[in-house]
Design goal:
- With 206 residues, the chain is mostly helical.
- The chain has one domain: DhaL domain (Serine Threonine Protein Phosphatase 5, Tetratricopeptide repeat), CATH 1.25.40.
- It has 10 helices and no strands.
- The protein is globular and about 50 Å long.
Amino acid sequence: MTNEDTLRWLEHVADVLRENAAYLTQLDSAIGDADHGTNMARGFKAVRDKFPTMAAMDMAAQLKTVGTTLVSTVGGASGPLYGTAFLRAGTAITGKQELAAADVVAMLEAFLGGIVARGKAQINEKTMVDALTPAVNAAKQALNEGATLKEITTRATQAAEEGMKATIPMLATKGRASYLGERSIGYQDPGATSSWLILRSLSEVV
C-alpha cells in the first residue's frame, strides 16, 4: 500500500459511513444515544475536507490527521476511541513509504490497541473490541500462513463481521448500553458495526 492507497481507503470509509449513517444510528437508537451514524459521518466529512492537504502527506501523517480530526469533531465516546485508534495506527507505520502485508497487520493491531487503551474494554463486553479483536487475530494468522494482503484483509473483515454479529446476544457491560442491563441483549453493537465497515472498506480498496 502507498499513501495514495491509504487516502483511497479513507475516502471509501467516508463514503461508506455516510451511506450507512442512518443504519448505524438506528442500531444506536436501541442501546445508545441514537447518534453514532451521524457522529461518524460528520467526523469523516471533516476528514474528507482535509484530503487536499493529506494527499502530500506520508501514510503515518495521514492516519494521525484522521485521528486528531475525529477527536475534535466526533461526539460521544466514538471520537476519542476512533481518534486514538487512528493515531496509534499512524504511529505504528511511522517512516514507511509503502506498507507490506506485515506493516498493515501491525497497523491493525495498533488500531485495536488504541481502542483498548482508551476505552478499557475487553472481548465479550458488546463493544467495537468484539469485532476488532477477532479481525486482528485472523489477520495475524493469515500473515503467518503467508497469505497475500488481499487474503489478509478479506479474512480480517470476515472475522470482524462474525464478531459484530456475536454482539447481538451479549449483555453490554461498557458504555451507554451498559445502563440498559438485560435490555441490551438482542441488539447488534453499533461500534462493532462501524469497525466492521472500516475494515470492509480497507479490504475492498486492497
